[in-house]
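ingest -> fold -> write
write: protein_1
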Amino acid sequence: MKRLARLLFAAYLTAFLTISGMSAAHAELQIDEMRELLQKSLTITQIDAEITRIGEEETKVSASLRKAEADMKEQQAHVDRTRERLGQVLRAYYKGDRESLWLLVFRAKSFSQMLTFYDYLTYLYRSDRTALVGYREEYAKLLESHRQLELVQMELASLKAEFIRQRERMIAIQEEIDRKLEEHPDAAAVLAQQMAAVQASWKEKGLPLFQQYFSAMSEAMQKLPEKIISDKEKHYIKGTSLDISDADLTRMLHEEKAELGNLVLTFADGQFQAESQEGELKAIITGHYTVEEDPNRLQFHVDKLEYNGFLLDETTNRSLEKTYDLSFSPGLVLPMLYAKEVKTDNGLLSIRFQIKF
């Protein structure tokens, strides 16, 4: 299959270069190099999008940091005021002022006066206790403000580090492309045209296609557990095991979402693969499921994405995985089912459960 895809790509590229005025022989010599350059140009486009996203996220986190700093400053002022009030109360107890006040109860000249003194002292006691509790609460809030500030600072530092890493990656890849173009000045114009075409195709068609697939699969995955468990004809669940074929799950996806009509699932070698061909657009999603304990579910991880024979960058993989939830939660339908193991082999998605009451 891979050999066929490579031959088709080579034929397409050779035809393009021939039309562009370059000899087929020269094109054949450049196939691998040109494919690598097109791959790099597509990678740069994705990294550039990730850098833009990180920049926008950094702006939001910087605003959160300023708010966290302001909140902590305000909380510190609250603590200082509460500490001052508490200090007055503690000094009063230390000097014995509070104890001497209780003697007024015994010096009352009438029962009504005694009740008045008692009510006053009770109010004073409650006020003192409020000061003690208030300080404890305000101090706890201050500690929480410190914690939130540290988390935001860490997030901002992480974003800045990732921004630098991705920018350095993009610069390095761009330098490689520039060097190649300098080595082949005769082919530079054709290469630039091809790279621009690949980049435009990804932005205008490829990315929207993957977003459509991930979005539709995310919605479908929330409904499939109930559909699988309630199927009385196939009996996918037997005892503490659930086994469903890639063909049956493909059919269910098609029934659930029309947008997934061209998508075909394959379960093999521990991987979950979804492949589609829509006209000139070919998309392949490869990943795997792992069992998460809390909440208990099967979490999908993107291992590899391919678009028209090109491998997509890790930034796109992470972005789509984070944005769209392809997790699978049978326990939402039958709470007693607790997933312990998942496998995708020989055309089957197999889940082993533990019964919990």
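write: protein_2
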Amino acid sequence: MDKDLIDGDALIGLDCSRDDILMVSCAGISIHRFQRKLTRKVLDAGRQWQGYSLTIKGLSGGHSAYAIAENRGNGILLLGRVIEQLQKHFAEDICVVSAEAGTLINVIPPVAKVSMCCGKEHAGAFENAFDEIAKELRQAYAQTDPGLQLLIEERELREDETCISREDIESLLTLLGAFPYGAHTMQDSQMAESSACVSILREEKGMLIVEGSIRSNAEALHDDLEKAFEEAAAASGFQHVRQQREPAWEYREESPLKQYVTACWETVRGETPGFFRPHASVEGAVFIDKMAQKGRSLDVIGMGCRTCDVHTPKERLEIASVGRTYELLRYIVENFNLQYIE
């Protein structure tokens, strides 16, 4: 958006999905990519191998802006734990052929898959060890992810079967172990203030790729998490690239627009509104940033109609809330020059 196309001192956003609160802040977001060139090795032809497909599924998943504070299981991190535990048991007698999880950057991945090979003489012990790991993880995540399943299935080996080098797998495990996943600071008992999520793991054109994001309602906390990302990359031998960063709309307790709209709300509805600082991005932050580039400040407030199941096929609008929101918005606009500017 060209900053020279916009002007103003106040912005009323209508991108709020509730009509009983005012939005007074939002999180900024940055998207990150970690990548490492893979080395593949041919399986030792001097021994017999058994192939396995391991699947983690049934995790609760959810949007990384809101569910991140609930400590739900992450398919990529659980996949890393499974591989790490199996390597402790069997060392050089197993190898990883492929690993994948996640498709969307804003979702906690609920499914992960890894293909492995094990020396055939250890096949029974390998299956037993996996079952024990699965049992431990189901117990650990019984509260947050009651539907968690860890499945093992034999698979046929290809004639040209290759595996990812142990060095590359160790680097991946180091990255996942150092990744600052989860909510780091909280606004209250339910809403995160700053957080990091790893959402995608895939192999592409000979590269092992991990993608994640940072969200924060405060720019300084965002900077701290970006530093942690850089440290995780340096420790693991992955290249780190920040692909984009959108600013936060930081909370202003003494915002004149917040005070004015609150007074209008109290006049029209006879009650004081609640205030909401979502751990997600809205367009108001972009307008604030563009005006800052012009050396100007912009006061922002968000409001809206009541909508349910937003960003899903079940999204719907409560018609009665349209009238309530219109009545309030009209009063705000009609009295704006008389009250807010004064």
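write: annotation protein_2
The radius of gyration is 25 Å.
Residues 123-140 form the longest helix (18 residues).
pipeline exit 0
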